[in-house]
Amino acid sequence: MTPAEWEQRINRLRSLSAELLGLAQAGQWDAVTEREVQRRVLLEELFQTAPPADLAPQLEAAARATLDSDARLLELAQTERDQLSEHLKSLGQGRRAMHAYQNF
């Protein structure tokens, strides 16, 4: 991979990580999943071999930014999961109440 290709991929990593977080904040979880697949492929490409020495700090900074972004994304996913759990719980309670009413 040429230095220009390295730089392009590093920038793409930053872009995808920011995009993932934005999609999660918008509640677009299907799109998050799609982009994560793309990012995983990119990460595998970036970490198969050592980067050019002058681009190593950029790659490290992009990796750290990705980890920070992922921490926030995980918080959002946890919140979403908790909300879905509560919704499913209330649906179950509604079904039980309807069943009890119908059998009364």
List the helices and strands and how they pair.
Elements: H1 3-25, H2 29-46, H3 56-102
Helix pairs in contact: 1-2, 1-3
Question: Which key phrases capture this entry?
Answer:
104 residues; mainly alpha; 3 helices; 85% helix; 0% strand
How much is the average pLDDT?
89
Percentage of residues in DSSP E strands = under 5%
Oligomer: single chain
> What share of residues is helical?
over 70%
Shape: rod-shaped
How far from one another are the termini? 72 Å
- Rg over CA atoms, rounded to whole Å, is 21 Å
Structural class: mainly alpha
Low-pLDDT parts are: none
- The total of beta strands comes to 0
Number of helices: 3
The ordered string of helix (H) and strand (E) elements is: HHH
For the largest beta-sheet, the strand count, sense and barrel status come to:
none
Brief digest:
Helix content is 85%, strand content 0%. The protein is mostly helical and 104 residues long. The N and C termini lie far apart (72 Å).
Describe this structure in words.
The protein has 104 residues and is mainly α. It is built from three helices and no strands. The radius of gyration is 21 Å and the shape is rod-shaped. 12% of the residues are buried.
